[in-house]
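queue> pop job 88
queue> type: inverse folding (structure -> sequence)
queue> payload:
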């Protein structure tokens, strides 16, 4: 097993009466893309700020690269990159000047910095925009500039906080491909997003935080195994009566049935013959079926079942 790059234990952060982090813990292994998910107000941003020593906390232990993290741990910070959700660049500087400035915070040698800046520009494909000021860039280009500023100094551990918010599909795809390339180049990634399909596509392991504490952690398949929903069956069949629907509900593996008069949606737990059993019930009732679909639960299903479906405030 790969060694741990980041370890957080028993992290507590209070804001007067509010407990933002309640003995929170997480560990990230070298070379992985680690997803950190949570509803609004769950504590994930607070956790990241504590990990980066941008926020004081009441209790806990944070180690990065095997060393204790602290506000003055500059030997650790030089190997960390941060790509924040909000665009964090200087409007008065050009694309090149922005990347050079942020790289220069860590890389003093001019020749090395020049090389790194150009490699970052190549990496995010901003060669045609190096003289542009940020206000002249589209949303997707600004995101790519944000990434270049965060990774130009070639950090070993990179935090991406919602890097694809409000960008077009082409820019999103470019960003996701870039994150994969960074991992292939040896970086370890901590990734937060509200786009579950991105997390499912990218992440080796995922931690879900809510109310300041870990509620689930594991691979995507392990998380899917934590919820009762293991199969979603959709069948087009008109005029199904209550007696037949009741027969479907009475199956031991079925826990939810929805029917709108045309489409029957059945959510079922583990079972080898769920589809066959439901089709048999419908056939016995004399119903004609047009289309039958069976799909596995998504990470979004896991997230909603574990954290609830109610809306959250920021």
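queue> result:
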């Amino acid at each position: 097993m790969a060694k741990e790059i980041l370890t957080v234990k028993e992290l507590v952060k209070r804001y007067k009466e509010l407990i933002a982090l309640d003995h929170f813990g997480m560990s990230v292994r070298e070379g992985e893309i680690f997803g950190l998910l949570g509803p609004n107000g769950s504590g994930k941003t607070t956790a990241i700020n504590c990990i980066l020593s941008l926020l004081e906390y009441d209790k806990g232990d944070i180690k990065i690269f095997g060393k204790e993290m602290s506000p003055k741990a500059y030997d650790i910070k030089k190997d960390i990159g941060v790509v924040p959700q909000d665009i964090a660049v200087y409007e008065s500087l050009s694309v090149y000047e922005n990347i050079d400035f942020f790289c220069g915070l860590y890389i003093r040698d001019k020749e090395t910095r020049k090389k790194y800046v150009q490699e970052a520009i190549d990496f995010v494909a901003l060669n045609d925009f190096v003289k542009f000021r940020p206000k002249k860039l589209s949303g997707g280009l600004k995101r790519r500039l944000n990434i270049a500023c965060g990774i130009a100094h070639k950090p070993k551990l990179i935090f991406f906080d919602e890097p694809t918010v409000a960008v077009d599909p082409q820019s999103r795809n470019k960003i996701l491909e870039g994150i994969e390339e960074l991992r292939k180049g040896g970086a370890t990634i901590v990734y937060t997003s509200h786009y579950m399909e991105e997390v499912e596509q990218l992440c080796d392991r995922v931690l879900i935080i809510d109310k300041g504490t870990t509620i689930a952690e594991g691979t995507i398949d392990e998380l899917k195994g934590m919820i009762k929903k293991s199969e979603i069956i959709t069948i087009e069949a008109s005029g199904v009566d209550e007696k037949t629907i009741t027969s479907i509900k009475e199956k031991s593996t079925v826990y939810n049935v929805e029917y709108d008069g045309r489409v029957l949606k059945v959510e079922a737990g583990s079972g080898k013959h769920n589809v066959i059993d439901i089709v048999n019930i419908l056939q016995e009732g004399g119903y004609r079926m047009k289309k039958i679909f069976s799909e596995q639960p998504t990470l979004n299903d896991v997230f909603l079942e574990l954290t609830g479906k109610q809306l959250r405030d920021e």
